[in-house]
C-alpha cells in the first residue's frame, strides 16, 4: 500500500513518470475522499504535480467486511485510456498504469474543483454539462459497433466485464433504497415519504425494470458512475481556462448508454432541488435547464459523428432516430432511480445532506416526487414538460 | 481430422467412452449434413452407437475462404452441458468433450428424425413445439440472474462470448437478406417481392432495430440457432417413445431469449406456408397454432419455476409480467426477420426450396408478407389475430 513516505520511492521506480515531477523537495498529501481508493497528490517545488491512485482491497465506507477486487484500477485505466482517445479534453489524463500494484498515475487536476462542491457553494453551472453530453456521445460512437463493427464490439464487451463494481450499482441504486436495508437512512421528518414509496409496487416494479435494463443491455463502454462528484471543472464558460473533465471511471463496463446520462440528470436534479430549497428559484430553474442542454449536446455530437459510422448502408438515419428515442427513454428511467437513491441510500449527496431541516424536507419531497414521475411517466414528454413539473413541485412543497 | 478409419482408434483412446460402445466389428458412417462439422455415427454389432462431432476450421458451405474458429465445439459442449442440467430430456446428451481435438461425443439419437424432415414429409407435429417452449423457459430461468444472481449472470455472460458465430447470425439473418449480397438468391418468379422489400425503408430499419437488440441484449445463454433443423423428434405425442430434443447449440451465447423463440416461430411458419401452398389448409392452420402452443408452454414453465427465483422480494410478479411482454415482443420481431431470411438468404429451408413453382411463389408471398407484418405490427396483437392474418394471406395469394 502506498504511503506518504513511500510515494517518492515509487515514482523514482517508474520510468514512465520520469520528467513528470522533480523528486527533490517533493511533498505528498493523501486526499482520497472516495470510497475505494487511496489518492496522493505529489507536488514538486515548482508546482508540478502527479496524482497517484491506488485501489484498496475493500470498500472504505464499509471496511474490510466488504472486500472489493483491486482489478478495478485496471478497469479505470482501460476506460480512461479509451475515453482519452475519443475525447481527450473531457476526461482526466492517464500517465501510466501499474498493473502489479494497481496504481494509476493521473493528470494533475488540482486546479479544478469537483462539480458537486462547485454547485453546492453556488458556483456557476453555465456550460458545465454540455461537455458530458459530448463525452457520452463520443463514448457511444467510439465503443459501440458504430466504430468497432459488430465483432470488435462483442469482444470489447466481453473483455470489460466488471461484475463486482456493477454489483455495487445494482445494490445501491436499484435494490436497497426500494426494498430496505440497514445501509439506508433518512431524517425522521421524511420517514413517511420513504415508507409510502416502499409500498408503492408500481414504483418498485418500474425500478426493477430499469435494473433489468442495467443487467441486460450492453451498448457502449459506459462510465458507470457519472455523477457531479465524478466531474471536475475549472474556470467560467467562455473563458480560456474553462475546463470540464470526468474522472473516477472504475465502474466502467459495457452497459446502457442512458445510464450515464440518467445518473448525470439525477444529480443535476439534486443541485437544482438544493437551490430551490434555498429559495434560489431562478438558479434552480437554470440548473434544471441543464438537463436538456446536456441532451442536446449529446445528440448534436452523435449526429455529427454519425456520417463516419461503419456500415452506413445498414445503419440508416431512421435507425439513429429510433435509437435516440430509446436512449432518451432509458435516461429518464435511470435518472428517476438515481434521484431517489441519492436521498435514501448509502451513497447520499451533500447537495441534500447539508441542508437545514426545512430545506431538507423540501428538497427530498421534490426529488422523490420527480424521481417517481421521471421513471413512471416518461412516454412522449418534452423537456419543457419535465421542467414545468419541477417548477410546480417546487411551488407545491413550498406552500 | 477424424476419418471413418480413425474413429475406432479415437474412441479407444478416450477412457470416458469406454463401455459406451463395443469396438469389435464397429462401423462408422459420416453423416454431417451441416455446414460446419464432421459427424460420425459409430455403431457396434449390438446396435449401440456413439456420435462423434468434430468442428471444421471453416464454413463447409463456403469452404476455406470462410475460416471459422474450432472453439465453437467448446461453445456447443458448454451449452449442451448447461442445458442438460436444466432440461435433461429436451437436449441431446453430451458424453464428453475433447477440447484438444474439438470433438464432442454425443448421445445416439439416430432413432430420432430431424423435425424439418419430419414436417416436410407430412409427419405429425402434435406436441412437437411445446417442449422447445419448456426448454427456452428453463434456459431463461436457469442461466439468468433469476438463478445465478446478478454476479454469476455477468460472469457467465462474459465467459460465453461467441463473436464469430454471432457474426454469422448478424450477417445472414439481419444484414445480407435486406441489404443485398452475393449469397442471396431467389427464383426469378419472386424477384419483385425481394426488390420491393429492399426499397422498403420502414422494413429494413425495423430489421436493424432487431439487429440492435441481438447485439445489445443479454438475458440468458440462448441456443442461438433453434430452428426445426436443430430439433430431433421420435414417435407420436402421447406415446411412451415420444421424444423431442434440441441439438447443434454451437451458436450459444448470452443474448435476447426472444431470439430462440422467434427463430422457432419463423420456421414453424415455413412449415405452415409449405402446407398451405400444397393445399393442406387444415394442416397449415394447425401448424400455425403451434406458435401459440410453444409460447404457452414457455410461459407455463417460467411461471412454474418463478417461485424458486433468487431474491423473490425484488423480482415481483408484476416484474415477470412486464418481462414476458417484452419477450413476446422480441419473439415476433425476430420471427419476422427469420421468416424473410429463410426465403432469401444463404441458409434457405427445404420446406420452401423443394416446392414446385406455383407452390413456391405462394409460400414465398405468405412468408414475406407475414414476416414484414410480424416485425412491424406487433404491438398489442393476440395470437388469434396473427393466426387470422395467416389464413387471410393464404387465401389472398391463392386467389
Automatic annotation (TrEMBL), chains A, B:
GO process annotations (BP): methionine biosynthetic process
Keyword DNA-binding assigned: no
UniProt superkingdom: Bacteria
Enzyme Commission identifier(s): 2.7.1.100
One annotated GO molecular function: S-methyl-5-thioribose kinase activity
Keywords: ATP-binding, Kinase, Nucleotide-binding, Transferase
EC class name: transferase
PANTHER family with a match to the protein in the record: METHYLTHIORIBOSE KINASE
Family membership noted in the UniProt record: Belongs to the methylthioribose kinase family.
Protein name, UniProt field: 5-methylthioribose kinase
Naturally occurring in which organism (per UniProt): Alpinimonas psychrophila
